[in-house]
Amino acid sequence: LALLVNTRALVYAATHGRILLPTQPPFVALRFTDRTALAGELLTPGAPDRQLYVLLALFAAAAFDTAAHLHTAVAIRQRHPGLSWIGFPAPGADGLWRFPDYSYGRRLASEHPLTTPGGHPA
Known about the structure:
It is built from six helices and no strands. By secondary structure, the protein is an all-alpha fold.
């Protein structure tokens, strides 16, 4: 996929009169506006190999947003850029996430009577 997107970046640069630094991969060497325009071309319905570029975009977005290779608490401690960007909250001092306010402003269900003090089903 990297070879494909870099080849398309070279073609884009050549057809739009852009000069790319040879020290960077072609897609990276494009200016942000050119990368955005090229991504728009690659992801347009009916574009050749569109499905491959959709998968690449999804993979890149997931890697940026989630830091799936790290425990979430570790990623937040290390200031993972994607989690920081989306404003993902830090855990409490004990490393757990708790949400004191219910998302609908009210409790959604009663706790099962056999639930353990740790919140697990009996």
